[in-house]
Design goal:
21% strand
């Protein structure tokens, strides 16, 4: 079955069109656009008009693409920003009405579970690390935890200067360590780590020296703790305007990559990981599997305004 999965993240809106057969997900098309839906949510607890407009414009394009590729089911999953926003559920209702997607607001536990499904089978001594814009999930055989350690959230809380000061970076690191110490189960240990999502894949691309992003080279790359520290030091020293011009880094990810790198450094320290294996398979692949299990859509006229909103 050909399906479409949409990830309504705090920092990015992503699309995967894939063929699903017997639990296997074969990618047909994959798109990522940085829409920063979670901008301001940490302080105001609402999705703001401009970020909503960016996401809706993006979804208009995604809808055209998934229809042209013949997707039979469409599932949009929402995570931290929508969970935290007072108007999050209303926003999802509008998306269902306008675009015809099935939508699902995930709890932190459900987000972790769907990510694990997307990554695939892992060993009992492996922890999956998913650093998003609004939250970070740690998923292992002994337990799983969802924290409010997101790259967008912590950038807004701690990194006011350009470039960030040492005091700001230290305060951010202390906050991350505190959350990990308080919220991570004692039995959540790891000999191996698998890292997913944009912070980790971007740092892998920089470590590989890629000028243009290459998912085939990024997938499976072992990102060492020394490399994470080196990229963090390099990026944190640059003003945002220069960070946007770093080869291999998506310019719109530049504002939040420093906070994301701090989170990764502290997570690896906390788990005792000397390196982490980078995976291109993540919650999108899990959402594709969930989309394939949806009931067939009911044939009939589209609701008023469907697929026309900008």
């Amino acid at each position: 079955m050909r399906v479409a999965a949409i990830d309504l993240g705090t920092n990015t809106t992503r699309l995967l069109v894939a063929d699903v057969l017997n639990g296997d997900v074969a990618e047909v098309s994959r798109r990522t656009r940085i829409t920063r839906l979670g901008e301001g949510v940490d302080s105001r607890r609402r999705l703001l008009p401009l970020p909503i407009a960016r996401v809706r414009n993006c979804l208009t394009d995604y809808r055209r693409e998934l229809e042209s590729l013949g997707a039979e089911r469409s599932l949009a999953v929402a995570t931290s920003a929508v969970r935290d926003a007072e108007n999050g559920e209303a926003f999802l209702g509008e998306l269902e009405w306008s675009y015809g997607f099935t939508t699902r607001l995930l709890t932190g536990e459900e987000e972790a579970e769907l990510t694990l499904r997307g990554v695939g089978k892992t060993g009992d001594d492996t922890v999956v690390v998913d650093i998003g814009g609004g939250s970070t999930e740690l998923i292992g055989a002994q337990g799983r935890v969802s924290t409010e350690l997101g790259s967008v959230r912590l950038t807004e809380r701690f990194l006011a200067s350009d470039p960030p000061t040492e005091d700001e970076l230290d305060a951010l690191a202390v906050a991350v360590r505190s959350v990990l110490a308080e919220q991570t189960p004692e039995d959540l240990t790891a000999q191996h780590g698998i890292g997913v999502a944009g912070t980790i894949t971007s740092l892998a691309a920089l470590d590989l020296g890629l000028v243009e992003y290459d998912p085939d080279r990024v997938h499976g790359h072992r990102l060492g703790d020394a490399a994470v520290r080196a990229q963090l030091e390099r990026l944190a020293a640059l003003p945002l305007a220069e960070r946007r011009r770093v080869p291999g880094l998506e310019p719109e990810r530049a504002p939040v990559i420093v906070a994301g790198a701090v989170i990764l450094r502290e997570v690896m320290r906390h788990l005792g990981l000397r390196a982490i294996e980078v995976s291109e398979r993540d919650i999108l692949h899990g959402a594709a599997l969930a989309a394939a299990a949806l009931p067939a859509p009911v044939e009939g006229d589209a609701p008023p305004g469907a697929y026309t909103c900008c």
